[in-house]
Structures are given as structure tokens and as C-alpha cells.
């Protein structure tokens, strides 16, 4: 209740200013779930906030089918087996008043390729970008990459003004993007202010600005929607939905899987038979019913219903044969395991409780470690847990799941919580990555998924639906399964006063 009151008061302060200014009263009040993890640097997952706020842009964007469409590039063509030429849009201004040129495009993307860690969209990719005359850049990979245009749609490869890049690899995104909204200021992990950028090259933003509050507590976010102090609310917890006017709640099916990652390198789950025992012990349907109140889909694989082709691929003979070869489960008696997850997604601690009960019923002894994500991520990546529950987007970066599978399950993956390394899986992922988009690529992706599941490196539990809140006075909010879009140029207020 204190958190909810604090949030409401914070938004109310902005509304109070609105009484003296019609412009301020038309500003959008946005409550986001996760605070910045890395000072809003675009070379981290914070890049997706810039995409959802429309403060920064990439060379291309993806349509509903995952096909590349023009953005800061007006067109592109493949020059040879490893090189693509992108024509850079003319007449684009950065928020600091400088002009977009091919040099800025090349410098921004090069900075991403040299970052440590580098963006996961570049896992396994050697990419160089150089200018080509006054109107284009050449992007070249070490090996042929049929999905390079889609890859360049990743928010982590957004283009910023030269002044944003500081010594030591630091990137300051304030006043440095090209989008319809300008990032004016950031107050640590508490809030951010966006103002309309009137010199935007595209459609002028309808709202004069956006006031962002970072609210990890799901109860507080739901309260902000109920009281009318927030216009748009990210990720309302399932347990709060019943207390909200149904007209304000919108379910968006997500390419996001709630998965239990098992540490395959050290501890009890280094034994495949013990991993199989965990898989056999888990009843995901109970978790869907009790924790998500039926507002999720039980998983049969890593890729969910947001990729409708995946279910059909699982009926192939090769897929069925791979799963049939899984190691049999062994009996466990008092085997201790350390189970981790985070509080930022309100359902995950409840999932941990259900999993603890199920695993202990099978003979495991479970110790839970639950923290905010920013305080637990490094431990998870370092292999500090025997098992870790993660809500993971599966096509977040390129619109194609190969990048996610490579990041999480390849020997060189940068997000390999399972500490998993299998040459056969690496070979399957490499094969899928080299095939152009289409049926053959989809079959290769499914083959890689089957090998990962056959090793029990991870146990997919369910596929989430995000529950997005929108007040009665807001219109034009994006409902994006990929979690890239939220506020757009067409998002605005109806003119009604907040409650």
C-alpha cells in the first residue's frame, strides 16, 4: 500500500503541474516494470526502453510477420555473399541538432560490435560497418548472414549522435536519439522525462511528452491504473487483474517463455539423469492454473504459440525421435538444489513456490534465492544456481528465434544460464543460422530445439501473455508481442482528465 501510495503521489505531482499548463496536462503518464539496469545505455537490455519510448531508432524495423521494413535506412540490397548496402535516410536530425550521416550510422553500430559484453544479437556474428559514399553504409559479416537486415532491427543497434559516445565505452543517450520523443533526463532508477521532438523526420508525436516512472512492484503498478494516476501500465500481475475494470486490461500473446534453466556444468544437475528427474517432477499445468489463473499457455517446447509454426514442427519424425532418446530419470533422495528467480515479474516468486513443492515431492531439497533482477542476474550468468526460473523473450532481437537459442544454449552464448555446451547443438544452430527465412529454416530451428530439450538443459513451463493496462483517457498505445513498441507518434490523450 505504501508503494502504491508513493507511486500515485508521484504521478499526481505531474498532474498537479498540469493544472497550470495545458501542455503538461496532455503528457502521458507511463508506469514501467523494470528500472534501467545500465544507466539506459543502448548497449544493454535498456535499449528496449528506447524502442518502446520511440526515443531512438534503427536502420530497419520489423513488421507483424517479422519482415524488415525501412526506418533510418530507406532501402538495402545484398552486394555479395557477405555484404549488404543500406541507403541512409536523408533529412534526419539527432536530438542534439546534428544531422544523421552514414558516418554516424557506421560509428554507432561499430561501437556495439566492440562493446563488452556485446549485444546478444551479435552472438556468433563478426560484423563490420563502413561508409559507402555520402548516402550509404556497407555492412559485412565474416560468413554469409541471410538475416542481416532483421538483425539490424535490434534496439541494441540503434543509431545515436556522435556526442553520445564517451571515453571508456560509455554511451549517454540523453538528447542523442532520432525518434519522435527526445530523452530529456533520467533520474537514476526512479524516473525519466521524454519531450516531443518537433524536428522529427516522420510523423510528429501527438502528445507533448511522456513522464516515465519505474515501478518494479506489480501491486503499485496496478494501483496506478485503478486510480487513474497512470495512463499506460506495463505488465499487470495476474493476481491484480480482478481488481481492475476489464475495459482497461488488454492481454497480448507474447513470444515469451517461462523456463526453468538447469545448471548442466556443476552441482547435481550436471548429471543428465538428475535433470530428467526434475523434468519428470514438474507439472506445468498446475502452475498455469494456480499462479497465472489460466492466463498463460502450458509449454510443450521453448517456442510458443506466438510462433504458430513451431507446434507443427514438433510432430516430425526427427523431433519425436530426439525426445525419445532422453536419459531416464534417476531416483533422488534429499538431493539439495539452490533455486533462483527474481521479483520484477510478480508471478515468478509464486512459480518458485510451486516448483519447490513439486521438486521436494520428488525427493529434492530446495533452497530458494529470490531478489530483484538487477541484483541476481550476474550470479545467474555465473552459474551460482542449480536451477533458475527465467521469463525469456524468444524472438526479441531479430524477429527470429535463432539468436535467442544461440545466446542461451550455444557453447559461446552470452546468456547461457544453464552453462550448457554441446557440439551437436552448436552444429544445429549454425545450420539454422545459414538458411534463408522460410520453411527450411523453420525446420532447422525446430531440430535445434529438439536437441536442447533432449539434453534437459532447460524445462519450458509456460508461454506468457502480457497484461497491459491503458486508462480510459489514452488512445493509440501499441500492443506489441515483441515488446519493442509501446508509445508511438499516434499515442495521445482523449482530453478527459485523469480520475
TrEMBL record:
<dbReference type="InterPro" id="IPR039424">
    <property type="entry name" value="SBP_5"/>
</dbReference>
<feature type="region of interest" description="Disordered">
    <location>
        <begin position="478"/>
        <end position="499"/>
    </location>
</feature>
<dbReference type="Pfam" id="PF00496">
    <property type="entry name" value="SBP_bac_5"/>
</dbReference>
<feature type="domain" description="Solute-binding protein family 5">
    <location>
        <begin position="68"/>
        <end position="414"/>
    </location>
</feature>
<protein>
    <submittedName>
        <fullName>ABC transporter substrate-binding protein</fullName>
    </submittedName>
</protein>
<dbReference type="InterPro" id="IPR000914">
    <property type="entry name" value="SBP_5_dom"/>
</dbReference>
<dbReference type="InterPro" id="IPR030678">
    <property type="entry name" value="Peptide/Ni-bd"/>
</dbReference>
Amino acid at each position: 500500500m505504501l508503494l502504491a501510495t508513493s507511486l500515485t503521489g508521484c504521478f499526481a505531482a505531474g498532474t498537479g503541474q498540469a493544472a497550470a499548463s495545458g501542455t503538461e496536462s496532455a503528457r502521458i503518464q507511463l508506469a514501467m516494470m523494470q528500472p534501467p539496469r545500465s544507466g539506459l545505455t543502448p548497449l544493454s537490455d535498456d535499449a528496449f526502453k528506447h524502442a518502446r519510448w520511440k526515443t531512438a531508432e534503427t536502420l530497419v524495423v520489423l513488421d507483424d510477420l517479422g519482415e524488415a521494413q525501412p526506418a533510418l535506412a530507406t532501402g538495402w540490397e545484398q552486394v555479395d555473399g557477405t555484404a549488404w548496402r543500406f541507403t541512409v535516410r536523408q533529412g534526419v536530425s539527432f536530438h542534439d541538432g546534428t544531422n544523421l550521416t552514414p558516418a554516424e550510422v557506421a560509428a554507432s553500430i561499430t561501437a556495439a560490435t566492440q562493446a563488452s559484453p556485446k549485444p546478444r544479437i551479435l552472438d556468433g556474428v563478426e560484423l563490420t560497418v563502413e561508409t559507402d559514399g555520402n548516402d550509404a553504409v556497407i555492412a559485412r559479416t565474416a560468413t554469409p548472414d541471410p538475416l542481416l537486415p532483421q538483425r539490424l532491427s535490434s534496439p541494441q543497434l540503434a543509431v545515436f549522435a556522435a556526442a553520445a559516445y564517451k571515453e571508456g565505452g560509455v554511451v549517454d543517450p540523453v538528447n542523442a536519439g532520432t525518434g519522435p520523443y527526445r530523452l530529456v533526463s533520467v533520474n537514476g532508477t526512479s524516473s525519466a522525462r521524454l519531450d516531443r521532438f518537433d524536428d522529427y523526420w516522420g510523423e510528429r508525436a501527438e502528445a507533448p511528452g511522456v513522464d516515465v516512472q519505474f515501478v518494479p512492484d506489480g501491486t503499485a503498478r496496478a494501483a496506478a491504473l485503478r486510480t487513474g494516476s497512470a495512463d499506460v501500465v506495463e505488465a499487470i500481475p495476474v493476481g491484480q487483474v480482478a481488481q481492475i475494470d476489464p475495459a482497461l486490461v488488454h492481454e497480448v500473446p507474447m513470444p515469451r517463455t517461462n523456463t526453468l534453466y538447469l545448471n548442466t556444468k556443476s552441482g547435481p544437475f550436471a548429471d543428465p539423469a538428475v535433470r530428467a528427474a526434475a523434468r519428470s517432477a514438474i507439472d506445468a499445468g498446475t502452475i498455469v492454473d494456480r499462479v497465472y489463473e489460466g492466463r498463460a499457455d502450458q509449454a510443450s517446447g521453448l517456442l510458443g504459440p506466438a510462433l504458430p509454426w513451431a507446434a507443427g514442427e514438433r510432430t516430425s519424425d526427427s523431433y519425436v525421435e530426439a525426445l525419445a532418446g532422453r536419459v531416464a530419470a534417476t531416483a533422488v533422495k534429499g538431493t539439495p538444489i539452490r533455486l533462483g528467480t527474481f521479483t520484477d515479474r510478480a508471478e515468478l516468486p509464486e512459480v518458485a513456490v510451486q516448483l519447490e513443492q513439486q521438486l521436494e515431492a520428488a525427493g529434492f531439497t530446495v533452497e530458494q534465492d529470490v531478489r530483484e533482477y538487477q541484483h541476481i542476474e550476474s550470479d545467474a550468468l555465473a552459474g551460482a544456481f542449480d536451477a533458475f526460473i527465467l521469463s525469456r523473450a524468444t524472438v526479441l532481437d531479430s524477429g527470429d528465434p535463432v539468436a535467442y537459442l544461440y545466446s542461451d544454449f550455444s557453447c559461446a552464448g552470452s546468456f547461457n544460464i544453464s552453462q550448457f555446451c554441446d557440439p551437436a547443438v552448436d552444429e544445429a544452430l549454425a545450420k539454422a543460422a545459414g538458411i534463408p527465412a522460410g520453411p527450411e529454416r523453420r525446420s532447422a530451428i525446430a531440430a535445434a530445439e529438439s536437441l536442447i530439450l533432449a539434453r534437459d538443459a532447460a524445462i519450458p513451463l509456460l508461454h506468457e501473455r502480457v497484461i497491459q493496462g491503458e486508462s480510459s483517457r489514452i488512445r493509440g498505445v501499441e500492443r506489441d508481442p515483441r515488446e519493442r513498441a509501446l508509445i508511438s507518434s499516434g499515442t495521445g490523450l482523449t482530453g478527459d482528465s485523469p480520475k
